[in-house]
Amino acid sequence: MPRLVNNPNLEELPDFASEDFDAVRARWDNPGEAVQALTDSWQLQHAKRVQQWEQQILEDQQAAEEVERQRLEDEERVREEEAAVEAEKREAEKKRPKAPDFDATLLRQTGSLEGRDEATDGHQASAEEAFGLAKTEHGLALRPLAAFRPSRKVIPDSQLTWRQMTMAKTSLLSEMEKAQWPERHVEALVLFFYGIENSDLRMKPYGEAALIKYQARVRKEWHDSMKHGPGFNISIMNKSILRNALTKC
């Protein structure tokens, strides 16, 4: 049955006795009977249309309720799935070996070969301590930062030479991977150092010195930010900090 567009409750009974219906009434021998027959027929059809309209409204309401019910079910299912995923992530984090807390001064410990050698004499390791890189007879190894005694040969990160920075960077990334740092953090640092080493600023006077200062400051801020939250995307060059570093060279 075709869907009704207009509300039949708003319909009015036509005046079948009017001249508009003369041709219809002429088919009857008795005009009075014609008017009554036309009225009865219209009222019967009108009642059917009203009944259809009410049924149509009921079905529309039921359809809308079903859509809303389905929407709520979908939302609940999505929430449950997201909660399950988060629970799995938390459980995986609990089972994952805790990555050593690389302090922001790690490049300082690895940047100078002389300082690194001197700083590794004597230490006691603790599972909760921050770690740095140290040279041993078998190569580079992680050592607690607390074990590094002050050395006059240890160079601040901002004062490393370009060669010292690139050497320390290579060791740092290698040891971070061995220590099972989150892959996204390692990749972010790879892109960070790639951007520094391929910066056009290197071709300008004091460019490399500015980049050295830049990496020292930004990397420290990155490490500090991750102690209180997810941190920021270190791979994106901060032009404001870079300009500031250049003015100090």
Topology summary:
Layout: H1 22-25, H2 31-95, H3 106-111, H4 113-119, E1 131-136, E2 139-144, H5 162-178, H6 183-197, H7 207-226, H8 239-247
Antiparallel strand pairs: 1-2
Helix pairs in contact: 5-6, 7-8
Region (Disordered): 68-100
How would you characterize the overall build of this protein?
- Residues 68-100 are annotated as: Disordered.
- The protein is mainly alpha-helical.
- It folds into two domains: 8-94; 106-247, no CATH class.
- The chain has helices at 22-25, 31-95, 106-111, 113-119, 162-178, 183-197, 207-226, 239-247; strands at residues 131-136, 139-144.
- The protein has a two-stranded antiparallel ribbon.
- Helix 5 (162-178) packs antiparallel against helix 6 (183-197) and helix 7 crosses helix 8.
- The longest helix is centred in the N-terminal third of the chain and has 65 residues, at 31-95.
- The radius of gyration is 41 Å and the shape is rod-shaped.
- The termini are far apart.
Mean pLDDT across all residues, rounded?
Answer: 80
Beta-strand percentage range = under 5%
N-to-C SSE string, H for helix and E for strand: HHHHEEHHHH
Largest sheet at a glance?
2 strands, antiparallel
Summarize, please.
By secondary structure, this protein is mainly alpha-helical. The protein is built from eight helices and two strands. 57% of the residues lie in helices and 5% in strands.
